[in-house]
Amino acid sequence: MAEAHQDSGGGGDFDLTQFYQIFFEEAGENLDLMEQMLLNLNLETADDEELNGIFRCAHSVKGGAATFGFADVAELTHQMESLLDRLRRHELQPNSFMVDVLLESADASRSLLARHQAGGEGEALPTSDLVRRISELAAGGAPLTKAPELTPAPAKPSSSAADAAPQKTAAVGKAGRSLEIRVGPLEHPEQADAIRELFRDIPGLGEIAVIPSDKKDVRLFAVHTASTDEDLLDLFAFHVSRDFIAIKETQPEEPAPIGLATVSGDDHPVGAALAAFPGFGFFDGAPGAPVTAGGAASTGTEVKVAAKGAAKPSGAATAQPEAATIRVSISKVDQLINLVGELVITQAMLAQNSRALDPAVYQQLLTGLTDLDRNTRDLQESVMSIRMIPMSIVFSRFPRMLRDLASKLGKKVDFVTQGEATELDKGLVEKITDPLTHLVRNSCDHGVEMPTDRVAAGKSETGTITLSASHQGGSIVIEVRDDGRGMSREKILSKARERGLDVSDTMSDAEVWQLIFAPGFSTADVVTDVSGRGVGMDVVKRNIAALNGTVEIDSAEGYGMKVSVRLPLTLAIMDGMSVGVGNEVYILPLSSVVESFQVKSDAVSTIGQGSQLIKVRDEFMPVIELEKVFQIPRFNSGKTSDIMVVVEADGSRVALLVDELLGQQQVVVKNLESNYRKVPNVSGATILGDGKVALILDTGALVRRSRH
Amino acid sequence: MPLILAVDDSPSMRKMVAFTLTGAGHQVVEAVDGQDAYEKAQGQNFDLVLTDQNMPRLDGLGLTRKLREHPQFKNTPILMLTTESSDLMKQAGRAAGATGWLVKPFDPARLLEVIKKVIK
Q1: Contact A283 B94 (CB under 8 A)
Q2: B17, B22, B94: best mutation site toward chain A, by most A Cβ within 10 Å?
Q3: Strand residues in A526-572 grouped as ranges (E)
Q4: Taking a C-beta distance cutoff of 8 angstroms, is the pair A207, A223 a contact?
Q5: In the 8-state DSSP scheme, what is residue A63?
Q6: Which residues contact A123 (CB under 8 A, 6 or more apart)?
Q7: Are residues A620 and A687 in the same domain?
């Protein structure tokens, strides 16, 4: 649970913690969106809509953080908001220093939020340096060093009377301290009003507001200032004896600071901004306003607003589609998918049992079953689509990473994405992110050349990395392309020989490229801290294979390379081939099945320790007898021919010996591990049309088993 | 039971406001921005509109202006919940026809205290 919230004044009956989770998610989304917009921001052509959008993200996070009592986040985002406010008002021109510091601040906000979400344990990330850098940029937009300057900080708010009013509140807003000043008891309490005038007359002194006092002879003020108590007392002493003044520092979370209307040195008439400590007010005579008398409203809460120049602040009426979405927990969706899975099985059972019925007699029943079949299929498709999320979720993390990486390496890289709207199962999206990250980093690190090298090679200085996603049949294909130096066939071959791999010069390009998936293989000349440590492509390939996916590489030396990852759309449904062994039925993932054929029993040769091999088109491959793996009795063991199914995984092939091929079908994958326990050589289970359970074989495990 | 239209693009703020109000026996209709609020306001009689200022599509001031054009909202209290309490903002709020303002952040008790003043 999140950190205990300190209630600010009278709200003790309400438990705000119940809204924390919503706030954390919302703030995370806002920060992500802000980062994305910052990265897409073109500094020269930034338009109002973009700047307003970025501003609104910071604004929302600040509002929530302040409300829910996360003062550190509120403080930081308030600074960001102030800078962004000046940008959207075109008082400052955006530059890359600002983007940098805003990106860093977004990261810092995330980390602060994560700490609160974890219950506030551990050291909070220090943000004072960021706060200082932002406020300096907001003040003048000059590029600054990270080192703290020697001038005393925080400086007194240096707003002068000539300053434009709008950003004044923001600039003064949080610098300094919030104080409660008690004046009295006085014989003539109106003496104290002179103190208010001091704040009006002295620019930069701070802000003051009247707090309703329960004693007639005592005046209370809420003050926000950067001045010391001593300075204040000296000033006040002109009007009221020091003995009657008590200064007390108030909590920064109190709603006062941001809510105070400024009375200090601006050119509004005195009456224009009688701020009310409660942080609310009614316009005199406005529709629905309470009649002026009694209550807090009479203690100076009405504001007589000067009618002149009712300037409309640059609003934020940008066109953005309405968020017509609801938030549902994954477990609910999974339960729904599970239930639909059961329904599919029941439907399949009914369909199977109904085959024996006479169509002439049971016509209506059979029509109903056909409808049920169609509806079940549609329902299943719709339900599965709930778990589908767009690839943009994955893609969006790359621009930032590449920006940092490219600047670290001194390279210039443009990042292009295509087909972000392509949808993929959420479970797959989570698992594909790391391999894709690796591929993109590789492209930037090893693919794209240094700017000078690129120019020398007759290319443009800036390299391009393209990440695209598209649906092809029942799969999704994700491609990482770069226009860098590509791979050198010779280099890979010589490296492979060095490592004692079996290679020849007559190998096709595709076969050569596949060599880089060998464990520990890297052709990088230098080992950088980015990639190229030789742990990489093999892990990428294994991770993708674990998702029933495949990886292909295409490259032309000097022109770049392309890595294509092909994945099934979902892990919950799989195309399988069902095979019979004895009385059991097993499912093989269709993606790993290469071919099946019938052989004479004597074509299998036995080598040492009972291992068997079969020669298929000049290639020997191990034979695995499933009945031995799963220890099941086999009938007609005296037959003279066998059925073999060749499966491929981890780059090796094995032939599985089975009794019969039953057919191909889509199966709903059930997790065996969570429902029962981990079973060797089995990746899951499914329920067949006749209600029987069939195990789904883990071809990767079977292939590895054959190596021993 | 008083019917209140609560407008904020931030789900957490909206939920907090709605929870606070329903807890105090009010009925609440939520809207995600000014445009949504304006559409939901059609044909309904609200006793109070509580709106955020900075929202996509239609901001709080814009919403207030549009609502005031309708006879049914001529006298409905409209309170702006805003982090901006500058004079300009207040002038704009008054010019748009808002009833009053409440500065964010506020705590639930304060919110109830304020709306008690405008709801019969």
Answers
A1: yes
A2: B94
A3: 550-556, 560-568
A4: yes
A5: H
A6: none
A7: yes
What ranges in A443-521 are assigned the alpha helix state H?
451-456, 489-498, 509-514
Q: Do A288 and B76 touch (CB under 8 A)?
A: yes
Considering the domain architecture, whether residues A403 and A535 belong to the same structural domain is answered as: yes
| Span A444-490, pLDDT tens digits | 888 888 999 999 988 898 999 999 998 876 678 999 999 988 888 88
Return the closest-CA partner of residue A310 out of B85, B65, B93. B93
| Global pTM value | 0.46
Q: Which residues of A touch B74 (CB under 8 A)?
A: 287
Instruction: Decide if A23 and B12 are in contact by the 8 Å CB cutoff.
Output: yes
Domain enclosing residue B7, as ranges: 3-118
A-chain residues near B9 (CB < 8 A):
56, 60
Is the CB of residue A396 less than 8 Å from the CB of residue A31? no
Q: Do B109 and A13 touch (CB under 8 A)?
A: yes
> What is the three-class DSSP state of A265?
coil
- Residue A507 sits in the same domain as residue A394: yes
Nearest in space to A59 (alpha carbons), one of B59, B92, B37, B96: B59
Query: Chain A residues with CB inside 8 Å of B100's CB?
Result: 280-283, 286, 289
N-to-C CA span, chain A: 49
CB contact under 8 A, A316 and B35: no
Chain B stretch 43-102, residues whose beta carbon is closer than 8 A to a beta carbon of chain A: 48, 54-59, 61-62, 68, 74-79, 83-95, 97-102
pLDDT digit string, tens, across residues A375-422: 988 898 888 788 888 888 888 888 888 888 888 888 889 999 888 888
- Per the structure, how many domains does chain B have? 1
Residues of B in contact with A287 (CB under 8 A): 68, 74-78, 97, 99
Give the per-residue pLDDT at B54: 84
Please give the single-letter amino acid code of residue A411.
Answer: K
Which CATH number does the domain housing residue A611 bear? Answer: 2.40.50.180
Q: Any idea what the CATH number is for the domain that residue B103 is in?
A: 3.40.50.2300
Q: Do B56 and A309 touch (CB under 8 A)?
A: no
In sequence order, what are the beta bridge partners of A657? A625, A644
- The number of domains in chain A is 5
A578 inside domain: yes
Give bridge partners of residue A180 from the DSSP assignment. A222, A248
Q: Answer whether residue A322 is part of any domain.
A: no
Who contacts A503 (Cβ-Cβ below 8 Å, separation ≥6)? A493, A496, A497, A512, A515
Q: Do A215 and A255 have their domain in common?
A: yes
**Alpha helices, DSSP H, located in A554-665:** 626-629
Peptide bond into A185 cis (omega under 30): yes
CB-side neighbour CA atoms (13 Å) of A289: 23
DSSP notation for A660-690:
EEEEEEEEE-B-HHHHS---TTEEEEEE-TT
